[in-house]
Amino acid sequence: MKLLLIEDNPTMQTTLQRSFQRRGFQVVVCGEGGRALDRWAASVPDVVLLDLSLPDVDGLDVLAQARQRGYTTPVLILTARSTVGDRVLGLNTGADDYLAKPFDLDELEARVQALARRAGKAMAPAPEFCGLRVDAASGAIYHLGQPMDLSPREAALLRGLLAQPGQAVARERLFELVFPGDASAQAEAIEVVVYRLRKRLAGTGAQLVTLRGLGYLLKG
């Protein structure tokens, strides 16, 4: 399932992105209201998580414009505005659900799943590739039913590759998954994680292939 997270707070971005990725979600992050509709159209999300207090365009304006354009993706508002009037305004503008900050991550995921079910896009069981499978609930990776001993970064890299087995995944996209919000990480650091993951995959039948100028792919 793909989420579009429209949130400008870096800490909240990182927390939600890591939490949902561990649970098997794909997360696209946008921190500016002015770019949100373009990211919405480009990513084709199953559910949108929308903060109202964006720095340039108010979240309700983003939501209103999205509905005017015919975007029907379920929207869950995340905001510190918690009065009844704010909730009513958000729902009348086109939101499908509303959760006030601070919130519990398990409750947030349950609400996301509920919205997806209503839209007919509940998360299906993850397919296997060379015996590798990502557990949707925990984000843990199994090989032939046995949990793999992976570091968090190795697991993040493998989840990104398993989302598109047999297809090239851009180096930049994998870097975002492996080092989310880490401004100190150098671009070359992804190569170290790739090297380590190759060793972990030995004997699984899956190969991590480097495509120069494109990225990496997982093939059987």
Automatic annotation (TrEMBL):
<dbReference type="InterPro" id="IPR039420">
    <property type="entry name" value="WalR-like"/>
</dbReference>
<dbReference type="InterPro" id="IPR001789">
    <property type="entry name" value="Sig_transdc_resp-reg_receiver"/>
</dbReference>
<dbReference type="InterPro" id="IPR001867">
    <property type="entry name" value="OmpR/PhoB-type_DNA-bd"/>
</dbReference>
<keyword id="KW-0238">DNA-binding</keyword>
<keyword id="KW-0805">Transcription regulation</keyword>
<protein>
    <submittedName>
        <fullName>Response regulator transcription factor</fullName>
    </submittedName>
</protein>
<dbReference type="InterPro" id="IPR011006">
    <property type="entry name" value="CheY-like_superfamily"/>
</dbReference>
<keyword id="KW-0597">Phosphoprotein</keyword>
<dbReference type="Pfam" id="PF00072">
    <property type="entry name" value="Response_reg"/>
</dbReference>
<feature type="domain" description="Response regulatory">
    <location>
        <begin position="2"/>
        <end position="116"/>
    </location>
</feature>
<feature type="modified residue" description="4-aspartylphosphate">
    <location>
        <position position="51"/>
    </location>
</feature>
<dbReference type="InterPro" id="IPR036388">
    <property type="entry name" value="WH-like_DNA-bd_sf"/>
</dbReference>
<dbReference type="Pfam" id="PF00486">
    <property type="entry name" value="Trans_reg_C"/>
</dbReference>
<keyword id="KW-0804">Transcription</keyword>
<feature type="domain" description="OmpR/PhoB-type">
    <location>
        <begin position="124"/>
        <end position="220"/>
    </location>
</feature>
<feature type="DNA-binding region" description="OmpR/PhoB-type">
    <location>
        <begin position="124"/>
        <end position="220"/>
    </location>
</feature>
<dbReference type="InterPro" id="IPR016032">
    <property type="entry name" value="Sig_transdc_resp-reg_C-effctor"/>
</dbReference>
